[in-house]
What does this fold into?
Amino acid sequence: MDPSDTTPCPDTRDALIEAALACFAKYGYDATSIRLVASMAGKNSSLISYYFKGKEGLYREVFRYVLAHFSAKTAGDVVQDPPQVAASPMDGRAQLRAHIRRILREVDAHFDASDPLREPASRLWLSELQAPRHEVKDLLQARMEPFVRETRTCLRAICPDLSPAEVDFWGITLHGSCISHALMTEINHLVWTSADASLSLDAMADCLANFTYNGLRQH
It folds into this structure.
């Protein structure tokens, strides 16, 4: 073995992460081996243990890499900790609209056709949303908690009588609607033939916020 094969260099870690992303996205976690990742990266497999302590650590770092990539794309829409109680239902409505817009932009960033990481990263992201692995559950929770807190605050401001279970039900429903609108654009236009294909994210946010507000005020 050439000693240089196991000598760390600045680009080695990134090369392993990028190769692992491609492998995990294409073959899934179970079918991806350390040897396969190392071969795709053109590196010695022992470097995976050196940098990541094994396959689980590598997968976790790949997911961190994906989250950091998309966070950078939506850096201007960082979710701030919301106030515990909004001043009025109308304040809650305005806050909800801004919040929905952030969710739509977040999802849209994951599926930007011009992004070279779009295909592998979106596959990995969707697989974790459906069945999160224990290696990354805490990362997913940390990523989503600010959105959940702000959604709860908005819903309680609009309809203070909602129970905690009702707040969470409507929060899940609202997030699902946002994801569907941003993620399923092509299939939505295929089957919902009268939908406005030119509708902007801001316009979608207005519609969803108004629909949610009016429905909850009649609750």
In short: The longest helix spans residues 89-110. Residues 21 and 62 are 6 Å apart (CA to CA). Residues 3-67 form a domain with the Arc Repressor Mutant, subunit A fold (CATH 1.10.10.60). The chain has a mean pLDDT of 85.
